[in-house]
Amino acid sequence: MNTTEERKAQRKAEAELMERIAAKDEQAFAEFTQKYSALIYSTAFKVLNHYEDTEDIMNEVLTTVWKKADSFQSRKGSLVTWICTTARNRAIDRVRSVQRRGALYDRFEEKVKGEAPEKRATGREELYRSDARRILNNAVVKLSPEQREVIELAYFEGLTQKQIAERIDSPLGTVKARIRRGVDRLRGSINERLNGEGDLLLTSVSK
Known about the structure:
This protein is an all-alpha fold. It has two domains: 3-91, RNA polymerase sigma factor, region 2, helix turn helix motif (Rna Polymerase Sigma Factor, Chain: A, Orthogonal Bundle), CATH 1.10.1740; 120-205, Winged helix-like DNA-binding domain superfamily/Winged helix DNA-binding domain (Arc Repressor Mutant, subunit A). The protein contains nine helices and no strands. It has helices spanning 3-22, 26-48, 51-68, 79-114, 123-141, 145-156, 161-168, 172-193, 198-205.
């Protein structure tokens, strides 16, 4: 078998595997996971250089494969290329999410500073701002996985609720409910720790 024939046979096998997964064949998904998990992990790790985040991305990609295997089109490229592109894009999204969260903290600090522009920050005020960063981060991390996912997509990536529903393949009503519950939980947690100023932080988040 020459190289061209081998490539065609490989593409056919890849398409058949993804078709089986699209039909919810758990054995096919297990085969995919065993064969490609390491590739997904290594691709994401090159972008993130963080073990826990990389593992999260790997699981997200596998979930996407299970839910949207029918989106793979072998005529457009190999399965390996599709996997690497998906993993890399998700990893880049995660990096951008972290950057947006940093911008959120900066906006919050600007609001705090703006209340007294002529006064130099005291050591206590600087400590407060540092605590605010930590408290917000801890509050987001402590959300349920479902709530954290939609909150980050809505506020840190700037997606609309409809776009989020499409991204995670969930009904729009479910997305709205998760965002509402997540924001309510954040508000309660942050207000409790920041003497009622959680609303200021959440206002910064929503802009």
